[in-house]
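Quiz preparation item.
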């Protein structure tokens, strides 16, 4: 017999006890908007049970659990009261159309404000540029107050409620989100919730010996526990620091620092940390943020004897944040940044957890197939690993601000006859240009001398061969690089999910090696693809003879085409058998519309024969939507080198 689950009843009881108290506290304000309060209470009643259960799983054993419940409910009401009226309207709009982000109309971009427009105030002037590109999802890389000098590109946050003064102010951000919203663009920001910088007020208080704030972090008086933990941990930035603990002279204690020594991991076994971070999260939501990119999700819970990644409690914490968001700011979505094994990446994706997730596997395997000119690993992995839970989707990208790691599954590789270890070595050599005939100009990132691991930095265009081709002044090589770029773009835009453009890639940004002269970032090769001065190349977009113009316009055309095809919304994605090792194909379908997309990863022309086409449902003459060519009934399809065709087989 199933065990009696006492939790729903206790959840209800707790609400009956706490809510009247909270209502008393905020009586004045609540009386002003009874209708809105009623709607809030409906959401509270439908989400409270699961929030209670998650919090009980995490903190129920602590003597003051009831106090945690009181504190969180207080926060929910307080932050909801602070939520501007226009955002409450947006909540209603999104609640009426909760799956808006699955639409084929949604197209994303990501940028660093300082690199793109110097500051927030000037970003406003560039809204027409985003409109021209067709973006309606805009991710601004971390722009909060950070320590001077190295701050991991903004990922060491000193204050979640203050903008880096070099970039602007919170008021400007608030104004910008409204201006973006007016133009139908949703703002995405990071929620860097695994760690704060060591200059955050909490860390400062911890350093000064305040026990309440020392308990916000993992600190240790001796090496005993750190040494036990360390046995199972991997080094994320091995060239920068060995081990996951940093000695803090002020506290005379070791602090857990998974990433850089100035990024202190938050201790989520402490319910005060959860409550405080929920407040910071809701503060951001109240600035008009619609999607939060949950940074480094894998690391937020530690367990002795494990690698302290992807622990079950990490999921519970995110789900608890999700419930908090659904109550106060129901338009808010979460995007998971889990750059881990694909079996783990998928576990963060759920309507109750992260509705969106980066798709690091697709990204890595597109580069893999480009290097090998073969699609077997890409095809096998996508066939088995693409589906996401209903109401959720991938965010597909080719490049982002981070490095490329070869996160495919070893057994998947073996199943298609690839030795995973040797293959990763090959890919690293290939993309650092250290392999005969390689077209790529990548830069090694975080070489680990102990394991031999390394990851790859570099821009889309430089990795795809454009930099090498331009250096060699070889027109044919330039054309090949352009075709490679267009091929990967075509897949990013069509395979299913939100395509996310790393701004700069729309005009073919190349590597920028000036980071080598800046002592604060010289050891972080990711800056090779985070360049400033080359953004001026946007001016070349007016000159039709430039490559920049061509890249830009081809990108816009592709986005426009996507937006016209309902089959490209989050519907089905079925990987097909092409019968050719260089081709990768899939069918996208929605209602009556069906599109067969075939991509050639080789420089040479490749054929998909009529028998395979027929098996995919190609009957009669069909049109290639990319160029309106007609494929006549019963004919083989011949693709040019690196061509992508979108056949309308509805
Ligand atoms: C994420 C970010 C990366 C950063 C790390 C630590 O992985 O994408 O840039 O270094 O988190 O915050």
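Solution:
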């Amino acid at each position: 017999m199933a065990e009696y689950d006492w939790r729903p009843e206790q959840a209800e009881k707790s609400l009956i006890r706490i809510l009247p108290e909270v209502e008393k506290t905020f009586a004045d304000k609540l009386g002003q908007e009874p209708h809105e309060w009623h709607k809030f209470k409906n959401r509270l009643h439908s989400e409270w049970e699961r929030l209670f259960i998650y919090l009980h799983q995490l903190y129920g054993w602590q003597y003051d659990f009831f106090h945690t419940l009181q504190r969180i409910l207080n926060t929910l009401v307080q932050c909801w009261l602070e939520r501007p009226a226009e955002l409450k309207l947006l909540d209603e709009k999104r609640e009426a159309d909760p799956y808006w982000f699955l639409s084929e109309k949604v197209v994303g971009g990501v940028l660093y404000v300082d690199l793109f427009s110097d500051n927030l105030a000037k970003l406003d002037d560039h809204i027409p540029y985003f409109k021209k590109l067709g973006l309606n999802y805009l991710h601004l890389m971390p722009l909060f107050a950070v320590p001077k000098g190295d701050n991991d590109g903004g990922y060491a946050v000193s204050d979640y409620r203050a903008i880096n003064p070099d970039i602007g102010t919170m008021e400007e951000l608030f104004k910008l989100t409204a201006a973006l919203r007016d133009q139908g663009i949703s703002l995405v920001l990071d929620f860097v919730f695994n760690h704060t910088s060591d200059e955050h007020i909490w860390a400062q208080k911890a350093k000064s010996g305040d026990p309440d704030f020392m308990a916000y972090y993992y600190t240790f008086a001796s090496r005993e526990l750190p040494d036990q933990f360390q046995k199972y941990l991997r080094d994320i930035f091995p060239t920068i620091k060995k081990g996951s603990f940093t000695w803090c002279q002020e506290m005379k204690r070791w602090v857990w620092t998974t990433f850089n020594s100035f990024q202190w991991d938050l201790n989520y076994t402490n319910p005060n940390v959860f409550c405080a971070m929920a407040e910071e999260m809701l503060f951001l939501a109240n600035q008009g943020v619609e999607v939060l990119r949950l940074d480094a999700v894998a690391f937020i819970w530690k367990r002795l004897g494990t690698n302290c990644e992807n622990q079950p409690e990490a999921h519970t914490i995110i789900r608890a944040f999700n419930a908090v968001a659904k109550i106060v700011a129901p338009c808010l979505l979460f995007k998971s940044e889990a750059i881990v094994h694909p079996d783990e990446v998928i576990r963060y994706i759920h309507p109750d957890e992260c509705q969106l997730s980066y798709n690091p596997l697709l990204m890595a395997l597109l580069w893999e197939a480009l290097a090998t000119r073969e699609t077997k690993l890409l095809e096998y992995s996508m066939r088995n690993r693409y589906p996401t839970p209903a109401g959720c989707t991938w965010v597909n990208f080719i490049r982002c601000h981070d490095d490329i790691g070869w996160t495919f599954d070893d057994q998947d590789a073996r199943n298609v006859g690839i030795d995973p270890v040797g293959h990763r070595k090959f890919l690293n050599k290939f993309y650092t240009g250290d392999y005969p005939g390689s077209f790529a100009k990548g830069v090694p990132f975080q070489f680990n001398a102990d394991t031999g691991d390394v990851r790859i930095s570099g821009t889309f265009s430089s990795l795809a061969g454009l930099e090498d081709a331009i250096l060699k002044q070889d027109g044919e090589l330039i054309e090949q690089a352009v075709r490679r770029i267009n091929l990967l773009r075509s897949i990013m835009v069509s395979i299913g999910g939100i395509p996310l453009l790393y701004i700069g890639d729309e005009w073919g940004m190349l590597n920028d090696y000036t980071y080598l002269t800046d002592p604060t970032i010289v050891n972080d090769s990711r800056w090779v693809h985070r360049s400033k001065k080359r953004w001026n190349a946007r001016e070349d977009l007016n000159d039709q003879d430039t490559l920049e113009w061509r890249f830009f316009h081809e990108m816009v055309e592709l986005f426009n085409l996507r937006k016209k095809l309902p089959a490209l919304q989050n519907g089905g994605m079925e990987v097909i058998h092409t019968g050719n090792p260089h081709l990768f194909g899939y069918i996208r379908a929605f209602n009556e519309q069906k599109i067969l997309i075939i991509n050639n990863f080789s420089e040479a022309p490749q054929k998909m024969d009529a028998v395979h086409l027929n098996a995919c449902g190609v009957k009669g003459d069909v049109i290639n939507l990319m160029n309106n060519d007609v494929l006549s009934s019963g004919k083989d399809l011949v693709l040019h080198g690196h061509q992508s065709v979108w056949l309308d087989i509805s």
